[in-house]
Amino acid sequence: MKTKAHSPPAPDLDARPLQHGGEPCLASVYSRLAKIGFTRKFIKSTILPSWVCDQAEKDPDVFPELALFLGKALGISSRSLADPTEPLVFCNPSPARYKPATGTVLAEERIAPAKSVNQQIALEVEACLPKDPAFVASELDPTQIRNYILRSSKKLDFKSLLAYCWHLGIVVLPAVDLHSNSALKFTGMITWQKDRPFIFLRGNAKDTSWGLFVLAHELAHLALEHVKQGDAAFIEESCDLNSISDQEVAANEWALSLILGENKNAMSDFIRMTPRINAKQLAARAIKEQSLIGVDAGFLVLKSAWERSLNAVDQATKNAAWPTARAALKEPSITDEHTKPLMLDALRIKGDLSVLSAEERELVVRALGLDK
Ligand SMILES: [Zn+2]
C-alpha cells in the first residue's frame, strides 16, 4: 500500500459506475462491518491509515487496496470484504473459549471482533520482539515469583508484576478499544503467537489496584495450563472473586498466593474489628500494611471491601464497603494509576516497531494508542 498522500480523485468520480448495486464500495463495507461489531468510527479513527481521506473512501480504484488492508488488520477474509453477496468471514475461525460474567449469557458472535482484532495486533507485535527463550508454564510458582519480585521491588504491584511477565516472555498489552457497545469489552484475553503468550487487559480506567489482581489471575490461567499454546483464545468478560467454577477458584487462589504470600489475612482482622471504618482510616491502614508485607495498598483496600461486603453483619456495613473503598483509592497516599501507559511503556522498551512496514506500524500505534 502506498504511504504517500492519496492523489486527488478524478473530476468525474461521482459519474463512475458504482460497484455492488450502486453503493459506494467502502460505504457498503462499513455497513457490513458495523453489523458484526466494527463501527465506522472505529475503522476510521483506529484502523485505516491516516492518508485515507473521505474522497479516497469513495474511489473504486483504491478500494481493492483498502479491502486488503482492512482484511489483514481486522483478521477478515479480504475476498469476503470485497464481495457484498458473501458473508464476512474471519480468517481465524477457531472459536474462543470465553467465560461470560456471572449470570450472563454471551453470544459467540459478540466476542468475535474483539478476539480477531487483538489477535491481529499480537501477530504484528510478535514480529517486533526479540526471540526470548520459550515460555514454560510449569516453571511458574507463585511463591517463587513473589520472592523474585520483592528482591528488587519494595512492593508487589501492577508495575512490578508487569515487568516480571515481560521478563518471562509474556507480552501484556492494553486491549484494542472497539468503541462499540455491541462488541465485547472483556477484562482479560490470553492468546498465543508462535510460542509466546499474549495477555490483553482492558486498560482505560485508573485501575492499577484491581489490575494487579486481574494480571495475576490471567498469569494463573497460564501457569495452571488452563490455556496452552495451540488452544483457542481464552477470553474473560470479568474476573470474579466469588466464582465457583473450578478453574476460576484455582486461578483466584493462585493469584492471591502470588500477591499476598503468607499474608492471606492481611487487613482481615482489622476490618472485622473496625466495621465503621471511613475512607481515610482505610487508606492509612492499607499503607501501613503495604510497608509491612510489601503488597500494593490499593489492592489491600479492594480486598478489604470484598471481605467487608462478604462478611457484613448488617446491610449498612455491606452497602458502605465498596463506596468506602473507592473513596480510599482516591486518598493521596494511595497510588492508583492507569494501567494502559504502563503496558505501553513496556512495549516501547522491548519492541522494535521499525521492523514493520509503515502501514503495519501505524496500525499498531493507533490501535494500541502508542501515539497518545
Ligand atoms: Zn479466570
Key words describing this protein structure:
372 residues, mainly alpha, 3 domains, five-stranded mixed beta sheet, 16 helices, 6% strand, binds zinc ion
- List the ligand species: zinc ion
- SSE succession: HHHHHEHHHEEEHEHHHHHHH
Major sheet: 5 strands, mixed
Structural class: mainly alpha
The beta-strand count equals: 5
Strand content: 5-15%
Radius of gyration: 23 Å
Q: Estimate the mean pLDDT confidence.
A: 86
Output the strand order for the largest sheet: 1-5-3-4-2
Overall body shape: elongated
Give start-end ranges of low-pLDDT stretches: 1-24
How many individual helices?
16
Give the tally of structural domains: 3
What would your notes on this structure say?
There is one protein chain. This protein is mainly α. The chain folds into 3 domains: about 20-80, no CATH class; about 95-260 and about 340-370, no CATH class; about 270-330, no CATH class. The protein is about 50% helix and about 5% strand. A 5-stranded mixed sheet has the order 1-5-3-4-2, with helices on both faces. Helix 13 packs antiparallel against helix 14. The longest helix has 19 residues, at about 110-125. The protein is elongated. The model is unreliable at about 1-25 (pLDDT under 50). Zinc ion binds near residues 99, 221, 236 and 248.
Please provide a brief summary of the model.
The chain is mainly α and 372 residues long. It has helices at 25-35, 40-47, 54-58, 63-74, 78-82, 108-126, 142-152, 158-168, 208-223, 246-260, 268-273, 279-293, 297-311, 315-329, 339-350, 358-368; strands at residues 97-99, 171-174, 188-193, 196-201, 234-236.
